[in-house]
Amino acid sequence: MPKSTAYTAKTPDAHGRIAYSAQDDAVWRDLFAQQLPRVQDHCAPEYLDGLAKIDLPSDRVPQCADLSETLLDLTGWRVEPVPALIGFKTFFAMLADKTFPAASFIRNRDDFDYIEEPDIFHEIFGHTPLLTDPRFAKFSETIGKAGLEADKSDYSWLIRLYWFTIEFGLIKTDNGIKALGSGLASSPTELLHATSDTPIKKPFDVIDILRTPYRIDIHQPVYFVLESADQLFDAANRDLIADIRQAQSHGLHAPLYEPKAA
């Protein structure tokens, strides 16, 4: 998560609704129109099934209150607008409470194809489809509960499991390797990069993932591929704190990217 942002959070009214501008709605409309055919070609059936269930508007920024009504019926989750940046502790606590934190702003035209920090297009178009599935929703809840048990020094280790699965995970399908993660589904450029032959693709392994560093401001040089979604669901039954300790005993892998310039 970036330490600073040029964007300002939008404040919901007393009913939890945000007054988005016509310009905001136009950015959503154009992002949606651009990304929909790409996810249809490159995303996994699990994501596409969820996208159909959540039934997002194509012409305007959705309201979290409306999405919460749908998710509460399907999985007991809700979506809550938050400031542009929240800390790991708050993030884990919200997941444990079956609440997905959604940054309330939407990117401007200058950041149309790539934005470092999560905006509402990433949060809603990327994340809510998987939250319609009780199994994926349970995995996110498990990450949150593990975060509440973890020490602060463990946060950066635990978040890697979320990063390389829910955010940037890949999965094998009958039609080849497809994108599962929300960061891929919502990214016009990284979705194509991740499903190409360019990056390294490694088999899903919890300890390996926990030991793999990443940068948030580049396309990932390495992705992890699930054989099936059951591998991820099984991971929710592991002792993730013990897994973190095991990963820490081995240490981090050498990064496959250049350090970020100061």
Can you offer a commentary on this structure?
The protein has about 260 residues and is of the alpha/beta class. The chain has a single domain, classed as Aromatic amino acid hydroxylase (Phenylalanine Hydroxylase). About 45% of the residues lie in helices and about 10% in strands. The protein has helices at about 20-40, 45-55, 65-75, 90-95, 120-130, 135-150, 155-165, 180-185, 190-195, 205-210, 230-235, 240-250, and strands at about 80, 100-105, 170-175, 175-180, 200-205, 220-225. Strand 1 (about 80), helix 4 and strand 2 (about 100-105) form a beta-alpha-beta unit. Helix 2 (about 45-55) crosses helix 5. The chain is globular, with a radius of gyration of 17 Å. The model has no long low-confidence stretch (mean pLDDT about 95).
CATH superfamily: Aromatic amino acid hydroxylase
Would you identify the CATH architecture? Answer: Orthogonal Bundle
Give the CATH class.
Answer: Mainly Alpha
Strand portion: 5-15%
Helix tally?
12
- Helical percentage: 40-55%
Give the strand tally: 6
Q: Summarize the biggest pleated sheet.
A: 4 strands, mixed
Sheet with most strands: strand arrangement = 4-3-6-5
State the distance separating the first and last CA atoms: 16 Å
What general form does the structure show?
globular
* Mean pLDDT across every amino acid position: 95
H-E string: HHHEHEHHHEEHHEHEHH
Return the domain count: 1
The name CATH uses for the topology is Phenylalanine Hydroxylase
Structure classification: alpha/beta
Gyration radius, in Å: 17 Å
